[in-house]
Amino acid sequence: MAKVGIIMGSNSDLPVMQGAIDILEGFDIETEVDIVSAHRTPEKLFDYSKNAHERGISVIIAGAGGAAHLPGMVASMSPLPVIGVPVKSRNSIDGWDSVLSILQMPSGVPVATVALDGATNAGILAAQIIGSSDKCVLDKILAYKEGLKIKVNKASDEMKK
Ligand SMILES: Nc1c(C(=O)O)ncn1[C@@H]1O[C@H](COP(=O)(O)O)[C@@H](O)[C@H]1O
């Protein structure tokens, strides 16, 4: 079965990236979680990016804060779709440093960038990519969407009381 690789620049990103781990677990999609840093572990970055697709990984979610070069560098070497999560790290410039580093990729090397700290959406997007060729996952996404609708309708009904 398809696996999602979830990597982050530092263990300080884990509280945010946990959102992706949790939502994918809810969809029964296997994840492989690791710390990889373009700046601090460049050899590991090369190895990860060049080999992830050989290990059954179908989509990579990469989260980083500050000068967040990790998602783009992974995308430059991997044939897999890369979803970038800008993380608002401790010393960030309100998260803009990370958002712009991940969002503004040059033509030819896309990174699907979610919102600041948007790891849950990154997990859903990864599940949707897998679901486009896996009926079982697609059904779980449909059920998830139904759940969102029920929740909003319930809140709407309660508001009218
Ligand atoms: N942006 C990157 C990269 C990278 O892009 O390779 N490696 C670590 N970092 C980021 O540095 C921030 C601070 O890291 P520390 O908390 O370890 O000092 C984290 O948000 C991490 O993602």
UniProtKB/TrEMBL annotation:
Q: Known Gene3D superfamilies for this protein?
A: 3.40.50.1970
Q: Which UniProt keywords apply?
A: Isomerase, Purine biosynthesis
PurE domain mapped to chain residues: 2-152
- Which positions does UniProt annotate for substrate binding? S10, D13, R40
Presence of keyword Isomerase: yes
Could you tell me the superkingdom of the organism this chain comes from? Bacteria
- Identify the InterPro entries for this entry: PurE_ClassI, PurE_dom, PurE_prokaryotes
- GO terms for biological process, alphabetical: 'de novo' IMP biosynthetic process
Q: What is its EC number?
A: 5.4.99.18
Q: What class of enzyme is it?
A: isomerase
Spell out the family assignment given in the record's similarity comment. Answer: Belongs to the AIR carboxylase family. Class I subfamily.
Task performed by this protein: Catalyzes the conversion of N5-carboxyaminoimidazole ribonucleotide (N5-CAIR) to 4-carboxy-5-aminoimidazole ribonucleotide (CAIR).
Q: What is this protein called?
A: N5-carboxyaminoimidazole ribonucleotide mutase
Q: Which organism is it from?
A: Urechidicola croceus
The root-end lineage is:
Bacteria, Pseudomonadati, Bacteroidota, Flavobacteriia, Flavobacteriales
